[in-house]
Amino acid sequence: MEGIHHKTINVNGLNIHIAEKGEGPLVLFIHGFPGLWYSWRHQIVYLADNGYRTVAPDLRGYGQTTGAPINDHTKFSIPHVVGDLIGLLDAITNEGEKVFVVGHDWGAFIAWNLCMFRPDRVKALVNLSVAFIPWNPKGDLVELLRLEYGEDHYMTRFQKPGEIEAEFAKMGYQTFMKKIMTLRDPGPLILPKGKGFPHSPPDVPVILPPWLSEQDIEYFATQHEKAGITGGLNYYRALRLSWELTSAWRSAKVTVPTKFVVGDTDLAYYMPGVQDYIHNGGFKKDVPLLEEIVVMKGVAHFINQEKPDEINKHIVEFIQKF
Question: Annotated catalytic, 279?
């Protein structure tokens, strides 16, 4: 982590914490749940050493970024978060400067929308784990998954303020981070009330894989203990509102050069209809400048941390063309 600089940028009434390293064309990294800027630690260093300026913020409600109204999930919609990132870019780049964007999980979802709303600010996109989700007239994602999997699906469980926070707090944030980051079951994540993660019994210690250290877990857990996890859960709670606010982008396309990478044991790859959409034409239709789809074998959801060397190369090989 040597040479990574930390600063706070005032944007949209927030104090956005960013980690920054390197000089050259700017690469903006957007983390997911329950990530932080730290999720990109490997990419920040590698890309900075290879001629890029890397910037990774803590999104609103996360980590050291402060000022978001945590108790109001309506302030965590996609337009809010994309607005934060555009404001951040305005503050740290020259006027009209285009940047590279790399997203994972929720960060990928946000990145798709950033590119759809403001393609004038993006040179190229590398997205991990979560494919583009076109606006669906049948309803928002939470409602569709509730109909498919019932009330115990994790996105449904995340909707009621306070309930899931209490379960995670009782578990302890170190244990929570260990359990969620070692999840490798590609099936739907079902969280029955009070029973925890099905892949990890409460009385069995979690053994960390080689790519994840106790120090990594401690950093994530400490930050979530300080800031709370409600901010991250609010993104799920605002999905209905985001769906309503983005209806004007029905049938809109993402028109920036794009590369997509996913692991073949990633639960996001097994959401209903996703593989058919990715591989049978729908994805390419909605993202016409999609140049490459990579499915990495034996890799789960936290792909940029599990396989940092491969992901670093995928990113650089793609963005160096622009």
Answer: no
